[in-house]
Amino acid sequence: MPRQFFVGGNFKMNGNIETIKSIVAHLNDAKADPNTEVVIAPPSLYLLLTREHLRSGIEVAAQNVFDRPNGAFTGEISVAQLKDSNITWTLLGHSERRVVLQESDAFVAKKTAAAIDGGIGVILCCGETLEQREADKTIEIVTSQLSAVAKEVKDWSKIVVAYEPIWAIGTGKVATAAQAQEVHAAIRKWLGESVGSEAQEATRVIYGGSVSEKNCKELAGEKDIDGFLVGGASLKPAFVDIINARSSHIPRIPSWSRVRVTDHSDCEKIYQLLEASSTQPDALDTVKEAVIKLKQIRETTFFNTYNTHAKPYVERERLRVVASDHPLHETIRILDLQGDEAQHRLPEGNVVKHLTWHDPSVREERQARLAEDTERWHVHTYTGLQDGEFLHHAAPLLLMHCSNIESLTYSVCPYTYNADRQAPYRAHILEQSLLRNNYGKLPETHLQRLRYVRLLPETGLWYDDARTYSHMDILGQLRLFHRLPHIESLAIDGITTNGGADHLEHFPPHTSNLRTIHVGHSMLPSTLVAVLIRIPKRLEEFTHFVGGRDTRDGGRNLFSARTLGKALWDQRGSLRKLDIDVDGLLQDDKYDRQDYERYLKESRRGAPDEQPYWYDEWFRLDEQASAGGPSHVHDLPDTREYSNTIGSLHDFEKLTHLSLGVKLLLGPPESTTPFRLVEALPKSLESLLIRGYTRGKTPKYDEAIGELVAQCSELLPALREIQGVEECVPGADVEMTRRRMVAPVPGEEEDVSYWELDEGDQDWA
């Protein structure tokens, strides 16, 4: 497990107000490795000056502290006085104090205990003279100095051991990397034997002794060298190069512009990115696009059969222990799992264990065992399940740590229809993280630059037939993104809704910054489309067309032109482009009125335990943030006659592009259109497409469209293009597809063509 790199700067008895300020200013402006802990130790006279001017993230240390709390000790400083001055570290046991001031090992140990007990971190120095090294007593001397401290101090979590060979301090001589590593390894071994395995693993051992920008990188490459205590070089600009020494030894991961979580082949790259969130956070800044497809994960890990051959692997994983200070514990705090008040709570330890399934050491050990296992193919189901758990838990971390993501392609995992009992648990962590982030319920906000969201349809395991619409709780999915500050575009294709079964049907209006909504090749009721239209504060572009797939039960949703028209009227001040093709579904609004009556009945419930399922915490938050207007579309005023049409659009002052079916525009042939078409279109209109019109077939349509063509140059001067008049532009045919539940057998030909989803390029880039 990696220890955080530590670099201390010991100014010794050097500097004045001017030079101290200059050094501090340089450190404040420097591009230092954010994963390196930096502490500087100026002369005691300048401690407060340094702390006052130094930026947060860099700490200040005293060069000495006394072991008594107060009293007649001229020239000394107490631990309490350091804490009172916001000084969080102290140097102790430096060879110059051991040699010049004759400080004994026992005295250094007492001062160390006083500092630790008082809450001050200690940079504990140790080291041998040249004579002692030549007499081969280096390890004996160093461990003796440390043993004195071990008698007084049991908790080493706030101690950084600094090995400083006295013969190398200020002499220009420096221990070779091999010499330093040998002593550091011996110190770490001593820690394990004398203090404990936890201290052996976690205590940082740093090197001091003529460290410079020239030798630091080689030294930093050694396994047990966790940083430096720098003397004279800390007074120079090159001190920053020493601070950045470790980063030059961390292998740089590729700079990705697109990342994905789709299948097991992505696991290793994803784990590298999770590690980089703490070691190379700038590597995640290049990510602009993310693809999250939970469908493949769920289907390939569904049958979690544990056979006899897999049991040893299962048991080994059950017994595997992840250290409490593993870096991923800090990485996942971004999700605030302890503050999650959702139904399925996720223990932090469980999440970290799922994530470390692809820790390089764990993965290498597993692969080595599999390579030697002649029955390894029986284990693939289990390892596939564990890969799926890893990906589900890694997905939210990846999204939250990549702060510059602008585009997200997201495949919904409909665990409502999934017999896998693990699926709700696995899907929870991603959806709950996105939900809480969207509503500002995480400690920090994320995805603040997300602009484009594409929701991919999910056919589900039991109905894996790409010819059918996919069930999607579209309003529930909107709750994951709609309040983000830069969100502007939502695209969905190939979906239907399940008639209220675990699906949201109501949503407060005018709560989102979305400006463009595309819902294509879908089968949605007009009541739901109306809600969708009214969610943005200022909707500019809306596209909705049906057809291309089949419903699973052979039925279809009905569509009311009046309901649609009232919803669009609510966006009349901003709508620029409108493209709707639903003529094949149009009926009167009888069913929409029934839905409205049910809504009124549910809304009148007074007691909290009688509130409708959709009136939850998130609905109330949106209700508070709503820019105004009634919640239900039928509560909007009737500002015009509809009579089975979309209504007049004459006051849609921003509308420039309009594409509609002739039936939606003018009503069915047998009805009376309550307006003249040429007067019902806005003067801003530049392009008009009429679908489903054939000249000479319907007198009512001929009259209205003929008048439009004749008078448009006078009454609609901006209209430059009219399509669908001379030659019929067909609308979506919702009757063309066969209604069949069973997919065709291989080789059987379809008698109709179904729309196929083009998911585009989703590979790593």
From TrEMBL:
Record's keyword annotation contains Isomerase: yes
Recorded GO CC terms: cytosol
UniProt-recorded Gene Ontology molecular function terms: triose-phosphate isomerase activity
Enzyme Commission (EC) number: 5.3.1.1
Catalytic activity: D-glyceraldehyde 3-phosphate = dihydroxyacetone phosphate
Keywords (A to Z) from UniProt: Gluconeogenesis, Glycolysis, Isomerase
CDD domains: TIM
PROSITE patterns: TIM_1, TIM_2
Known pathway: Carbohydrate biosynthesis; gluconeogenesis; Carbohydrate degradation; glycolysis; D-glyceraldehyde 3-phosphate from glycerone phosphate: step 1/1
Family membership: Belongs to the triosephosphate isomerase family.
Official protein name in the record: Triosephosphate isomerase
Originating organism: Friedmanniomyces endolithicus
